[in-house]
User: What shape does this take?
Amino acid sequence: MAASNISYPHPVLGNGDDVAIGEISPDVSYEISDEAIHLTVENLTSGHPEIDQMLAAGDAAWHLRIQCSRTYMRENFVATDSEFSARLKGEDYEGIVDVDIAIVAARDIGNYSPAGLHEDYKGEKFQLRAGEVLGIGPTFRFLVDKVYDPLKAPVSSLVRITEGDHKDGPFMLTLDDDLIIVRLSKSDWRDYAGICERVPTVVHSAIVLPALAEAILHIDRHSDTLWGGRLKDLLEATNINPGAPLAAAQEILASPVTRTFSEVNATLDRGEY
Assistant: This one.
């Protein structure tokens, strides 16, 4: 989806109705292996005669930003032709990868006033510096899912427990990321740090079980995430019915409540509490 309605100090193609002529709509394709991602972008054109002329003359250029939220990898490329290709290291990317495409000024530009300006800009001329954004296109997204065995991978490959920004209160769940993110309150996080290695089944019962059940409930809305694809594979491989999310989560975690009772009772019997 193209970015829109961002506040720029000058008109930008693709930003709402700033410029009525043209559209940035390239074709993006990719080939993925464990070793590399071969990315190809074709049909790099603005559809705006003046901006395309600036691109041809070298006054403007294409800027491509490729970023991966899972690995925090970010790469930036500049292209001057209507086609672009790059070979990305496979080890640097896993999960959702976003490709943002824009047009930027390659040098300072005076008296910029392209055709098709919104009436709010009519009669105005803009002085742009090198690097200023001239046009924004859609963000393309694809999933890099490395070789994955749903029957061997631990649930920890789907869930990440971290510290939230809230001081206290219930944990918060994020499902639109690569992993299922559980954010504990700051006070709970301190207590969690003291027990997560000592009594892991308690963590499974108190945190992972409800989080996983909620994720299963909403899995169809998040099938394009890394956790969504992997969790679907796991449910299918183990023939678990996702229609009963709480029961499914307990089956995936191998009856965590039962294991918690056994672990706590054994610990009490040893006099460790």
Residues 246 and 271 are 33 Å apart (CA to CA).
